[in-house]
Design a protein that fits this description.
The protein is mainly α. The protein has eleven helices and no strands. Helices cover 59% and strands 0% of the residues. Helix 8 packs across helix 10 (176-189). The structure holds a DNA duplex (10 and 10 nucleotides). GO terms for molecular function: 4 iron, 4 sulfur cluster binding; class I DNA-(apurinic or apyrimidinic site) endonuclease activity; DNA binding; DNA N-glycosylase activity; metal ion binding. It holds the Pfam family HHH.
Length: 214
DNA sequence: ATCCCGAGGG
DNA sequence: CCCTCTGGAT
């Protein structure tokens, strides 16, 4: 089992990620805060490539909660039925769109409490929206970040909330704004779940995971 | 702890 | 075949 990295090691990891990719961004397709909320809600237990394939056509037609209500649940399902969990997701997107229209003047609220109150929006989705749409240094811990944080020893924790707090406590402040995307991209392309691509890893001399799996 | 649930990869 | 993918609600 990996051991926690020292502060200077953590700092060095992010220095390298920043040097390699100074302005990392989401790979999800969206055109405004509302479509970002929808895209992230659809991305649960699904690949962003699969979500983008479906939302390409959807977001040409629908860019506001009002337009989503006009499309309706059945119409939405036609667009997203290639994505896993599509029935729950369609129901939630319609319900949250109605709340945005009725209680938030059709706008996406910039507070975690208001976001989490939306159906299908949990802490992770709310933190993504706060980070990507509103520029807050929020740490959304998804499947990639949970795995990467624990494997590398960057920010260890038994559950996602513990990892979120560990990231906030241990990642230097100047890296917190982009930490979400550096970690997720590292998990998606290098530190993958099955066979991590350690030979291609920027931090392999700091991480202790590789020697364990041999 | 369990359910939801399609696509893509190995 | 099995596992994984930017989880959330019950």
């Amino acid at each position: 089992m990996p051991t926690p990295l020292a502060y200077e090691e953590i700092k060095e990891c992010f220095r390298r990620w920043q040097e390699a990719d100074p302005a990392p961004k989401s790979e999800l397709n969206y055109v405004n805060p509302y479509t970002l909320v929808v895209a992230v809600a659809l991305s649960a237990q699904a690949t962003d490539a699969g979500v983008n394939k479906a939302t390409r056509a959807l977001f040409e037609e629908v860019q506001t909660p009002q337009a989503m209500l006009e499309l309706g649940e059945a119409g939405l399902i036609e667009h997203i039925k290639t994505i896993g969990l599509f029935r729950n997701k369609a129901k939630n997107v319609i319900a949250l769109s109605r709340i945005l229209v009725e209680e938030h003047d059709g706008e996406v609220p910039a507070s975690r409490a208001a976001l989490v109150a939306l159906p299908g929006v949990g802490r992770k989705t709310a933190n993504v929206v706060l980070n990507v749409a509103f520029g807050f240094p929020a740490q959304a811990v998804d499947t990639h970040i949970f795995r990467v944080s624990n494997r590398t020893g960057l920010a260890m924790g038994k559950d996602v909330l513990a990892v979120e707090r560990a990231i906030e406590d241990r990642v230097p402040v100047q890296y917190q704004q982009h930490a979400h995307h550096w970690l997720i991209l590292h998990g998606r392309y290098i530190c993958v779940a099955r066979k991590p691509r350690c030979p291609d890893c920027l931090i392999r001399d700091i991480c202790t995971f590789e020697e364990k799996i041999l």
